Amino acid sequence: MPHSIWNRETLLDITVNLVPLFILLFFTVMYAVWTPWTGEPLIYAMMHVLTVLPLLLLALLTYIAAQYL
Predict the structure, then answer these.
(1) Predicted TM-score of the model (pTM)
(2) Is the CB of residue 69 less than 8 Å from the CB of residue 10?
(3) How far apart are CA 49 and CA 31, in angstroms?
(4) Measured between alpha carbons, how far is 5 from 47 in angstroms, rounded to an integer?
């Protein structure tokens, strides 16, 4: 029977990445709900690129690291 990759040691190792993930998720949701720069589509797009892209990359990195631990 194959073992799960989500054992106790793996969860302890990847919790370091959970704090930045939650911070990026908070700012992504906050900027989606409250936009301080209305009427500026370039600033709005850049704001979401600078929060969503690192969020997705860190989530992917965390998942790949959990598979190899």
Answers:
(1) 0.75
(2) yes
(3) 11
(4) 34
